[in-house]
């Protein structure tokens, strides 16, 4: 994993370029669901881990898996986080995986911390992605599992995604966004994100023409007795990866050309992130059978420190 490097001057240059790009953005066309060609289906799940063979037998081509820990009170989410054992099983059965990060939900939603929240959540996403065998060059979908207002997007979600995108880029990864039609449309207009996974809440029956994935059904299906959500795949490159293999070289079909810098002004509701200035040597840990080295954890903390310093 490349060593992260942040500078205030560099961030300001990127911010200026992003502002210019934003002024040239145009409204994107809206199309009905029927206009999208479905290439296959993938599932997402948290209540358990079905075998790759069961997923394949159910007719799916892969899964989007959590690179995040279980939040307090959600101990039933025994399928979080994804592990190297699971991704190896998928690879052995010709299936692929994409990564998604979501820790909190509703009143504890990750994005409600604004840009400062990325200093907490981005290092965790990177750490779990790498521990599960995830390569560089692929996206981590960052979840906006809500139907937010435009004011919430502008003041909290936008800076959260921008800061998260910076951290992912420094780790050799790309920013994907899980959100409804409006969130995807606003983000693309702001030049944020390279991959897009749409959910239906607040989308009013529309599907965004730049969506790579679309979550069409939740809490109604099971694979090997485990509850799963069903997603249509609209792009050959939907952000998928296989452990031990390099990322896809084809560019994603999206107007977003770069990841802009986080705003230099913190949202009013954001809170500072306290990170130890001397993390030292972290011990290796094991989560659900997947090993995470102390070096990986230390790298995540370094990223968190540098994001935090850009917000002060």
From TrEMBL:
<feature type="domain" description="Rv2525c-like glycoside hydrolase-like">
    <location>
        <begin position="53"/>
        <end position="233"/>
    </location>
</feature>
<feature type="region of interest" description="Disordered">
    <location>
        <begin position="244"/>
        <end position="283"/>
    </location>
</feature>
<feature type="compositionally biased region" description="Low complexity">
    <location>
        <begin position="246"/>
        <end position="265"/>
    </location>
</feature>
<feature type="signal peptide">
    <location>
        <begin position="1"/>
        <end position="34"/>
    </location>
</feature>
<protein>
    <submittedName>
        <fullName>DUF1906 domain-containing protein</fullName>
    </submittedName>
</protein>
<dbReference type="Pfam" id="PF08924">
    <property type="entry name" value="Rv2525c_GlyHyd-like"/>
</dbReference>
<keyword id="KW-0732">Signal</keyword>
<dbReference type="InterPro" id="IPR017853">
    <property type="entry name" value="GH"/>
</dbReference>
<dbReference type="InterPro" id="IPR006311">
    <property type="entry name" value="TAT_signal"/>
</dbReference>
<dbReference type="InterPro" id="IPR015020">
    <property type="entry name" value="Rv2525c-like_Glyco_Hydro-like"/>
</dbReference>
């Amino acid at each position: 994993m490349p060593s992260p490097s942040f500078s205030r001057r560099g961030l300001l240059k990127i911010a200026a370029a992003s502002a210019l790009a934003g002024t040239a953005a145009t409204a994107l066309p809206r199309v009905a669901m029927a206009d999208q060609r479905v290439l296959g289906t993938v599932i997402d799940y948290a209540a358990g881990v079905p075998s790759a063979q069961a997923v394949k037998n159910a007719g799916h081509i892969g899964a989007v898996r959590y690179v995040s820990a279980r939040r307090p009170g959600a101990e039933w989410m025994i399928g979080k986080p994804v592990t190297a054992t699971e991704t190896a099983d998928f690879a052995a059965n010709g299936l692929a995986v994409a990564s998604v990060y979501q820790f909190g939900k509703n009143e504890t939603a990750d994005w409600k911390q604004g840009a400062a929240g990325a200093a907490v959540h981005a290092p965790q996403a990177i750490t779990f992605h790498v521990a599960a065998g995830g390569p560089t060059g692929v996206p981590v979908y960052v979840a906006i599992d809500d139907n937010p207002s435009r004011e919430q997007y502008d003041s909290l979600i936008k800076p959260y995604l921008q800061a998260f995108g910076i951290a992912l880029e420094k780790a050799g990864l790309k920013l994907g966004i899980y959100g409804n039609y409006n969130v995807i449309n606003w983000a693309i207009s702001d030049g944020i994100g390279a991959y897009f996974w749409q959910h239906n809440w607040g989308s009013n029956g529309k599907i965004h023409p730049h969506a790579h994935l679309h979550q069409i059904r939740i809490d109604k299906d099971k694979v090997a007795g485990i509850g799963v959500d069903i997603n249509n795949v609209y792009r050959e490159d939907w952000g998928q990866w296989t452990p031990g293999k390099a990322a896809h070289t084809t560019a994603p079909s999206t107007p977003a050309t770069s990841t802009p810098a986080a705003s230099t002004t913190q949202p009013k509701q954001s809170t500072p992130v306290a990170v130890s200035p001397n993390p030292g040597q972290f011990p290796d840990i094991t989560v659900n059978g997947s090993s995470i080295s102390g070096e990986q954890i230390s790298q995540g903390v370094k990223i968190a420190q540098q994001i935090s310093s850009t917000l002060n």
